[in-house]
Amino acid sequence: MFSKMDNTPSGGRKMEQKSIIIIGAGIAGLSAGCYSQMNGYHTQIFEMQDEPGGLCTAWKRKDYTFDGCLHSVGGINPNYKLYHYWNDLRKNNKQEYNQEKDRISKEVIEILDQRLGNIKNNIDVIDVATPATFKRYTNNWKGKHP
């Protein structure tokens, strides 16, 4: 964190707005910039890539496209049937809710293993996205939707 100082004519020093330089425009860097500005700091964000987003952008490696973006998650929009499915399941049968999340993660890993070859032992599932997941991580049940 850097703060700028100006010399005043009286010889004293006057503090100006504090300034923060952020390296990296991934989710963490962008979040740091937003929260810093909300708390009165001037921010500058520097990014090495052509676009912001970090690991929440898509990239290609050989013949494969890796898309870490959340834009395609339909279960977080209340207008989608999946939203109500996940909320009802979680409210009415927590055990089945967790089993369904586990089943989905195993299915996805199996598909990745078939397509990319022998990688399932190298994958750790952290969580499966549901409306509750977005509320827990973002404190916003809507996730990305307004």
UniProtKB/TrEMBL annotation:
Looking up PROSITE patterns in the UniProt record yields: PROKAR_LIPOPROTEIN (PS51257)
Q: Which InterPro entries has this protein been placed in?
A: CrtISO-like (IPR045892), FAD/NAD-bd_sf (IPR036188)
State if Coiled coil is listed as a keyword.
Answer: yes
The Gene Ontology biological process annotation of the record reads: carotenoid metabolic process
Report the coiled-coil segments: 87-114
Pfam families from the xrefs?
Answer: NAD_binding_8 (PF13450)
Looking at the keywords, is DNA repair present?
no
Instruction: Provide the alphabetized UniProt keywords.
Output: Coiled coil
- UniProt name for this protein: Amine oxidase domain-containing protein
